[in-house]
């Protein structure tokens, strides 16, 4: 139904400001906590990419609000939003892949909690369109599942299993 799609797209863009501000704040906190554990160049590069993507997504939301798109443009605006959600999920997944400290379990758990928190927050902001939520969640969570799965021992397997269950529950 065209009316339903238009309303879903409007709700997605209405939530963009809050979700992007939370993303940048959480990214900054993650970088601050990981600073002594992970290479600073990697942290700064990731943070710069996160800030640039958030700025781009905020600009996109402002353009949507100014354009007041016609009903026939809803698919195009939805697809733009979906691309942004997927890119954001990939960046959070990159945090779980490249910023995951090898030597510190508390820091690994912290990375996991931040990513899990972003996914939990995305339930509210991306729920108008389940595809947007899936395009964010799968690439954000999969690297954590793999990181823990590749660790030796029961704890790694247990953490991997719990992360996978969390993703399914969301």
Structure characterization notes:
The chain contains seven helices and no strands. The longest helix has 28 residues, at 40-67. Helix 3 packs antiparallel against helix 4 (74-98). It has helices spanning 2-14, 16-34, 40-67, 74-98, 105-126, 130-150, 153-169. By secondary structure, the chain is mostly helical.
Write a concise keyword list for the protein shown above.
globular; single chain; mainly alpha; 170 residues
Mean pLDDT: 89
Into which percent range does the helicity of residues fall? Answer: over 70%
- The geometry reads as globular
The value of Rg in angstroms is 17 Å
Number of strands: 0
- Main sheet? none
Count up the helices. Answer: 7
Low-confidence spans: pLDDT under 50, at least 5 residues?
none
- Write down the oligomeric state: single chain
Sheet/helix structural class:
mainly alpha
N-to-C SSE string, H for helix and E for strand: HHHHHHH
- Beta-strand content: under 5%
Terminus-to-terminus distance? 26 Å
Outline of this structure?
Helices cover 85% and strands 0% of the residues. With 170 residues, the protein is mainly α. It has 7 helices and no strands.
